[in-house]
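User: Run a structure prediction on this.
Assistant: Running it now.
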Amino acid sequence: MEIESGSYHNTVKKESWRTVLTLAYQSLGVVYGDLSISPLYVYKSTFAEDIHHSETNEEIFGVLSFIFWTITLVPLLKYVFIVLRADDNGEGGTFALYSLLCRHARVNSLPSCQLADEQLIEYKTDSIGLSSLPQSGFAASLKSTLEKHRVLQKFLLVLALIGTCMVIGDGVLTPAISVFSAVSGVELSMAKEHHKYIELPAACIILIGLFALQHYGTHRVGFLFAPVILLWLMCISAIGVYNIFHWNPHVYQALSPYYMFKFLKKTQSRGFKSLGGILLCITGSEAMFADLGHFSQLSIKIAFTSLVYPSLILAYMGQAAYLSQHHVIESDYNIGFYVSVPEKLRWPVLVIAILAAVVGSQAIITGTFSIIKQCSALGCFPKVKIVHTSSKIHGQIYIPEINWILMILCLAVTIGFRDTKRLGNASGLAVITVMLVTTCLMSLVIVLCWHKSVFFAIAFVVFFGTIESLYFSASLIKFFEGAWVPIALSFCFLLAMCTWHYGTLKRYEFDVQNKVSVHWLLSLGQTLGIARVRGIGLIHTELVSGVPAIFSHFVTNLPAFHQVLVFLCVKSVPVPHVRPKERFLVGRIGPKQFRMYRCIVRYGYRDVHKDDIEFEGDLVCSIAEFIRSEAATAATTLETNGEDDDDDDRMAVVGTCSTYMQGIEDHYESDLDDPDKPGTSEIRSPKPKKKKSKIKKKVRFVVPETPKIEKETREELMELSEAREGGVAYIMGNVYMKASQGSGLIKRLAINVGYEFLRRNTRGPRTALTSPHASTLEVGMIYHV
């Protein structure tokens, strides 16, 4: 997959059946790993303490009935038939729903949003084609209320962040319970006094190996994921069919909802508490929506309805059929998965179960990396190092800091709990909280984005919200029995996210209030009152208009700067991807002879940022194309959402080098270049691009020989080319923030302690630009906010 072009393959939904079936097969390993391994621990967690398996079989049949209807109503009805349709240009997950609401109701939390961003193709595209329909009276009033009240906007953001934090908590708990449950099968294969010394070390070794191998990426072994899950599903369904016909062919009668009533009537409060264990049967359902960007709606639906759903139902029915004829288990091993496996098959099934648990854990870990990247792009998480482990598979990323934090936390809960009961209580609360957040956000999407009746949204919330609230309350009752873990983890991550977001907003407000007037800058004359040296100076700023304070701070203390000045703003917009042809917004500051430009680079929250060489090439080419098109024709311009009356520069949409076939081209020199070729500063006609062999950083762009280009424009392009040869310097602000005098205690703690701690211990502004270390100059400033 090409980084710039491959990101958009998911937007094309008209695929052949062969492609759809291939994607459905591949989705087994990525999407359904977590959901498929739930039979390992559901019955064991349900019958841990709250209820007991009696001779009447009312408990086991009641649990089976709850499992069947829970899987049918939540993953099948809610996610497959409703939630999957709420994709954000092919992307899914909590932030996809929040992004949809940001665009339809203007509740965007990003401070640097512009009117020009609303002209993006992805911004205007509606996945179900309802964007042009008029809103109902209630939808219009709801939209107006959300746009007017900042408190509601902040509540919406916090709600999305709570769901995100619970996904991160699930990334800690799912590997622990999955691997531990898979390894626990050794209990039936060795003496009682020995298995306790095998389970915990084996689980820890597997978990350490799983996290230690993350930096290699999954593309090397990813082709094994789908076969492993497929083999696992065939295995549990075959064992389920065997147990049904061999032990109790009439177990299908337990699928009737009547058995749920009998179960609750007999067990009462104990049965209600056991719902926290039954809840684990839908662990991983959210992955169907969260991983939508890697596949298509149809492929995920086909995989679930044709294979995953029937396999899980057969597996749970088979376990219930076996347990209905076995009321006394001859060991301390409580009711679980392996006890229903024929004795001769236990070791092979154990191996397959461990492999399936690793695959399921890998899926949630990758999903955690992905959602943290989205949070960071939208300014809700500190800057972290993001490593793309594959140039061909979209979304394969690795975040070192998060990986090791997850590993330490995962090992801590595994060693601390040492049983599936408390691990299940913790995991269940994390899972059901994410589902509740999705239900709440979906109700708003139904009204604001789909323009459906408010009664449909109310029915959606009441029906699914009641089911999920029932499970949520059952999990919350077990707060002191393990359910406190996801709450504690989520609170810590939520506190960090809110603190970072608050500090980011305060920093941007300070930049806006203290920016330098463009008129003042132009009044200094063509040389700006300083010495202009050869090269290009990129002044990185968060502002989309005006001149940042760091520039005046720099030139005041060192009165010299580069011959070409580019005020560069790299920002994220609330869409999953920005197309290459809309990547850059380029404008001019002052007259042509000043050689000052403003360039706004727009990325979606799932876009891949290029490395420094490619970025520099695209940036210089976009400026050159802007110069050429400005002179050749009247370029289509978009006025920026100016924050100051004195900044009246206009911006033009310019794509990357690959998006225009004629005009300015980027030419990479290699050691194999002919020494007789024209020099870098010569003007050459565009020629067909050849495959590059060994690329160096020295780059030139090619100016087409055409009489349409005026002499003044050609000289400006030549000067830009020569400045590029002189080198590119990145000027960035290294800001220290302090709460201003008179600030309250909470603000002082948030800024002086929380934000500064996160800033010092996370990546700096170079992370967003991937700028080379040797060419970067940081200008230190203290902001009193």
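The two ends are 44 Å apart (CA to CA).
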